[in-house]
Amino acid sequence: MTELFSIDNILFSIGGQNVSIIETISVVSGLTCVYLATRAKVANFWVGYLYNILLFILFYQKGLYSSMLVQPVSFVINFYGHYRWTHPKSGEENSKKQLKITLLTNKQRVYFVVQLFVLAAVWGFALTGLDDLFPSIFREAKRPFLDAFVTVAILTAQYLSAQKKLDCWAAWLTVNVTNITLYLLAGMVFLPMVSAGYTILAFFGFRMWRKQWRQNN
Asked: Highest-confidence range of 18-32, 74-88, 91-105, by mean pLDDT?
C-alpha cells in the first residue's frame, strides 16, 4: 500500500514532470467531489472523505506541510457539513428536506476576509519553524505563507460550503487561483491543470446554487 501511494510510483508524464498514481487518484476523487457539490448532492461528502486522506499523504510527500496538516481538520468539517446538509433545523429546509442555500450578510463577509488574512499570517509564521522544532519529521517548508493562505482559504470555503452559503464559491475560486500558483512553485504540473478545472467547476457551481437559491427564496 505504501509503495502504491509513493510519489516515486510514476503513472505518466506531462511537460517533463512525472505524475504519480496518488496524484492521479487524488485528482479523480477531487473532481468527482466538486462536481457532486456543484449539483448540491450529499454524496460529495463521501467522496470528500477519501479525498482528504489522499491529500494528506500527497502533501506530506511534497513538503507542503500546511496543506497536509489541515486535512484532519478538513475531514472534521466535511463530516460536520454532511450532518448539516442532511439534518437542517426548522425553517432551513428546502423542498427536498435538506439544508437550503443562503447568503452571508455584508458584515459576515468582512469578518471572513479579515480572519483569512490574519490567520494565514500567523500560520505562515508558525510553518517557518517546523523544521527546527521537528527536524526528524519535517524538511524546510516550501512557500510557507502562500501555503498557509491556501490552507486557511480552503477551511473558510469548506466551512461556508458546510453551511450551504452561496458565497462559498467565491472562496473556492480564491482557493483554486492561489493553488495554481502554489503548485507551480512547488514543481507540480498536473495539479495546476486540475486546479484550472476546479475553477471552471466553481463557476458552474455558483450558477447552479444561485438558481436553487432563487427558487427557495
From this structure: 74-88
Residues 172, 61 contacting (CB under 8 angstroms): no
Element (H, E) at 104: none
What is the CB neighbour count within 10 angstroms for residue 202? 24
Return d(Cα 171, Cα 166) in angstroms, integer. Answer: 10
Higher pLDDT, 128 or 166: 166
pTM of the model: 0.82
Which phi and psi angles does 87 have, rounded to 5°? -130, 65
- Whether residue 10 contacts residue 20, with contact meaning beta carbons closer than 8 Å, is answered with yes
Q: Are 47 and 32 in contact (CB under 8 A)?
A: yes
Q: What is the largest CA-CA distance in the chain?
A: 55
Query: Sign of the C-alpha dihedral, residues 143, 149, 152, 154?
Result: negative
